[in-house]
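[audit] Reproducing an earlier prediction to check determinism. Same input, same settings, fresh worker. If the tokens differ from the archived copy the diff job will pick it up downstream; this log only records the rerun itself.
[audit] input (177 residues):
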Amino acid sequence: MTKNEIRQQVGLVLAAAEAKKAEDISVLQLPKESSAFTDFFIVCSGANPRQVQAIADEVDDRLSKQGFEPNHREGYQLGEWILLDYIDFVVHIFNENARKFYDLERLWKSATKLEAAEVLGGKRASKVEPKAPARKAAPKKKTARKVIAKKTARKPARKAVKKTVSRRPTKKARKKR
């Protein structure tokens, strides 16, 4: 199969994934020297198991209409990580938690990340750059008056109440009676 035919099939996968609202779609072109088993990884995410399965069904349907069947399917029943192996490319469809856990983009950091236009048009690709960890925005600082006002508003004044607890006499005390 020629490179253009493979790129057209990858384009069909991208269109199918986008049609089913897949999130964070990535195409990784694997280097020839480190991977002899496939040329591309297509990685995407779904919000829940049903969406993950729907994405896999759409990819399978679109490629089946063109006469391409996957060599191997895996993980469809659970819907956490579905793998469709078309020999020249492998489609990985994750739920959000599994994608974060396995982080294929980090594992295959030697791969070249392609954009959709690059896959279809054959433009020059860019090397995958590791993602910087996302930082949470720092909470706004509150003035001392607001903080004190909130603390006093939340806690009602407590009165010192002394509780008397009756104790059961010990065995020695009972014997003395």
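[audit] rerun output stored. Observation attached for the diff report: Residues 124-133 have pLDDT under 50 and may be disordered.
[audit] end
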